[in-house]
Amino acid sequence: MSAGGAFGGNRGLRPVPPEKGVFPLDHMHECDLEKKDYLNCLRSSGHQSEKCRDFSKKYLQCRMEKNLMARQAMSELGFEKEPGLESSEEKNNESIDN
Fold first, then answer.
1. 48 versus 97: which is more confidently predicted?
2. Which residue ranges have biased composition labelled Basic and acidic residues (predicted)?
3. Apex CA 9: angle with CA 3 and CA 14, to 5°?
4. What is the pLDDT of residues 22-77, one digit of tens each?
5. Residue-by-residue DSSP string for 64-96
6. I need a labelling partner for 85 at 20 to 30 A (CA). Which of 1, 16, 36, 74 fits?
7. Residue 12 confidence (pLDDT) above 60
8. Residue 61 is inside which H or E element, if any?
9. Looking at residue 3, what is its pLDDT?
C-alpha cells in the first residue's frame, strides 16, 4: 500500500472548500417540486434552458430559502431584474433628482 492511504489520497492535506456552484444535496427533498417543474420544462422545451429560466430561478430561490446554498443576489446568478420593477432605493433616487 502507498504512503498516501488506501485510495492514493494524502491524509495530511487540509480539505479544500467546494468551488462556487457546488452545494449540499437536498436530502430532505425540500425543493423537489421546483426541481421537477424545472426538469419537466426542460423536457417539454427540447432542453432549451432559456425557456425555463423562471423555473430555474424558483428552484435556486428555494435552495437559498432552505439554506441549501449560500444566499446571493439573483443578478449574480445570471438573472436580470424584472422589467418594470424598481427597488425602493432607485425610486428614492428618482424622487430626489426631481
1. 48
2. 78-98
3. 110
4. 667 888 999 999 999 999 999 999 999 999 999 999 999 999 999 998 899 999 98
5. HHTTSS----GGGGT-PPPTT---HHHHHHHHH
6. 36
7. yes
8. helix 53-65
9. 53
Nearest to 77 by CA among 51, 47, 41, 53: 53
Q: Virtual CA dihedral for 67, 73, 77, 78, nearest 10 degrees?
A: 150
| Rounded (10°) angle between helices 32-44 and 53-65 | 170
| Vertex 55 angle, CA 50 and 59, to 5° | 125
C-alpha cell recorded at residue 32: 423537489
